[in-house]
Design brief:
With 204 residues, the chain is an alpha+beta fold. The protein folds into two domains: 93 residues, no CATH class; 96 residues, SH3 type barrels (Roll). The chain contains four helices and ten strands. The strands form three sheets. Strands 6-5-2-1-10 form a five-stranded antiparallel beta sheet, with no helix packed on it. It has a three-stranded antiparallel beta sheet with strand order 3-4-9, with no helix packed on it. The protein has a two-stranded antiparallel sheet with strand order 7-8. The radius of gyration is 22 Å and the shape is elongated.
Length: 204
Amino acid sequence: MDASLLNLPVQIQVALGSGYAAYMTAHAGIRAHHSATEIAMRSLAYGLIATAVLALMPPGHNVVVGGMVAFLITVFAAMFWRRVGCRIWRELLRRAGVSWSDDNPSAWMSFSESTDNYVSQIAVQLDDGTWLRCDDTTKFRDAPFGPCVLGSSGDVALYLTHEEPPSVEAKELKTVIDPYYGARLTYIPAARIRRLTLRHKRVA
């Protein structure tokens, strides 16, 4: 980091720090395709919230308290945008006929990063034709990595409840959950995946 940044006025430091933290929060899991310029501009945009908060502080306020308040409000605003605002904005654009794109580089990223829709079932077909399934992910909602993990590179991790090799009847695996060792997670690299099917339920 350039040491000259530490010589900037406190207000600017708070805006920059808050803006970057807000950017990291609002785009958690979907930052890989952002360029350095885009990261900087988005951070500055979020930093405007911190600047506005500081401008509304009463004269003579404690600098440390004011900075903490501005930081927290900016980060919570980013959380709200990611959880609610972004979805509403995309819906408005679609209804207005402006765009059906969500600005993500792939459909995989769009549903893998979504927290509005809960994965209720998942089935993966391997390159050898074998199907690996989890027919009811709600059983693993509270597992350490539940209900499943959809990696940014296309890899998948699931709690394997059914295995179906080609031309063989599906076999139910009844030892996925162990009362002592916990739930067994199965990792599938993207290179082994031929097809992936998911069922979703809207989060209440």
